[in-house]
Write a structure and sequence with these properties.
The structure holds 2 protein chains of 2 kinds. By secondary structure, chain A is an all-beta fold. Chain A is about 0% helix and about 50% strand. Classes of the chains: A mainly beta, B mainly beta.
Chain lengths: ~110, ~120
């Protein structure tokens, strides 16, 4: 079974602070993704990666950076967190043209 | 740009009945991939079933099946013999035929199965 783990699972941050959400996958998938989910909505893509060293902008990249230092790890970075970034963030991994496997989600609250 | 629309915000059914959830999509691609995911009350997102656009046969997995109508850009999810534990949010998603592998999601349909 595919395994994607996220940390932290819950985070409370202050406006203007830096937040890093981490994701680790043991599936050896090339592709990794960061999505956010807001109440009553589907998932929206923030950043994604084809492999170690690569990051690409998704549909809503403003205010976020991403880092893919290795095949297994993909981080989402909020340099200056704002209350509008309060959300649940999901990491996922997958092969080309295959289904995605999602992590458990990270709930971020920015006060 | 791709777009996925789920018009049913919520559905309520009695246990052991059959339910169909609708999904329509927009794409300029001639080849694409369609998925249905389930999000449980705990927030877990689980892959259920997929349909590749070039396949004419509707996909079936367990008590999940798809009604793929390519001319109508429609991919409905059918759940037969529903169970209480099928209560969840169901998302339709589309993926293009490039190596980006990006999934575009609909807003989801909340399914409640009553005893």
């Amino acid at each position: 079974e595919a395994a994607v783990t996220q940390s932290p699972r819950n985070k409370v941050a202050v406006t203007g602070g830096k937040v890093t959400l981490s994701c680790n996958q043991t599936n050896n998938h090339n592709n990794m993704y960061w999505y956010r989910q807001d109440t009553g909505h589907g998932l929206r893509l923030i950043h994604y990666s084809y492999g170690a060293g690569s990051t690409e902008k998704g549909d809503i990249p403003d205010g976020y950076k991403a880092s893919r230092p290795s095949q297994e790890n993909f981080s989402l970075i909020l340099e200056l967190a704002t209350p509008s970034q309060t959300s649940v963030y999901f990491c996922a991994s997958g092969l080309d043209r295959g289904q995605l496997y999602f992590g458990e989600g990270s709930k971020l609250t920015v006060l | 740009a791709q777009k996925v629309t789920q018009t049913q915000t919520s559905i309520s059914v009695m246990e052991k009945t059959t339910v169909t959830m609708d999904c329509v999509y927009e794409t300029q691609d001639s080849s694409y991939f369609l998925f249905w995911y389930k999000q449980t009350a705990s927030g877990e997102i689980v892959f259920l079933i997929r349909q590749d656009s070039y396949k004419k046969e509707n996909a079936t997995v367990g008590h999940y099946s798809l009604n793929f109508q390519k001319p109508k850009s429609s991919i409905g999810l059918i759940i037969t013999a529903t169970q209480i534990e099928d209560s969840a949010v169901y998302f339709c998603a589309m993926r293009d035929n490039t190596n980006t592998g990006k999934l575009t999601f609909g807003d989801g349909t909340v399914l409640t199965v009553k005893p």
